[in-house]
Design goal:
Keywords: Signal. With about 130 residues, the chain is mainly α. It contains three helices and no strands.
Length: about 130
């Protein structure tokens, strides 16, 4: 009986050191997927030409053409959004390059990035600091 009471904690200790499991405080987050916009609708807008409540011309100018213009507007907006994202990425890279350049320049002199020699908790001018 004594062996069994010692054996169970020993096995638990060995298993706890051998088995590794990630313990996240929160569930991993997933970015919501953007809805994809098809270039072609699943049903042709030209089917609206066959409606019997109005003439073919009225159906074309009141139903078909606005649908096509709307879809083309969505495609144009997506292209513009892609261009804006690319411009934003380029600006961020340029900004990072500028910051790195300033840091390299500041590392060679006593001046910091801000152009001042001050630093956090620097009271040496008031207390002598080991002279």
């Amino acid at each position: 009986m004594l062996r069994r009471t010692l054996l169970v904690p020993a096995v638990m200790l060995i298993l706890s050191t051998v088995v590794e499991v990630d313990a996240n405080a929160q569930a991993p987050t997933r970015r919501p997927r953007r809805p994809s916009v098809r270039s072609n609708p699943p049903v042709s807008p030209y089917l609206n030409l066959l409606r019997r409540d109005a003439s073919i011309g009225e159906n074309y100018f009141n139903l078909v053409r606005p649908q096509q213009e709307f879809r083309q507007g969505i495609v144009n907006n997506n292209q513009e959004i892609g261009q804006l994202r690319q411009q934003t990425n380029n600006l961020q890279l340029e900004q990072q390059d500028t910051v790195n350049y300033i840091r390299r320049q500041a590392a060679g002199s006593r001046l910091g990035i801000t152009g001042h020699t001050s630093s956090f908790m620097n009271h040496s001018q008031y207390y002598g600091g080991g002279r």
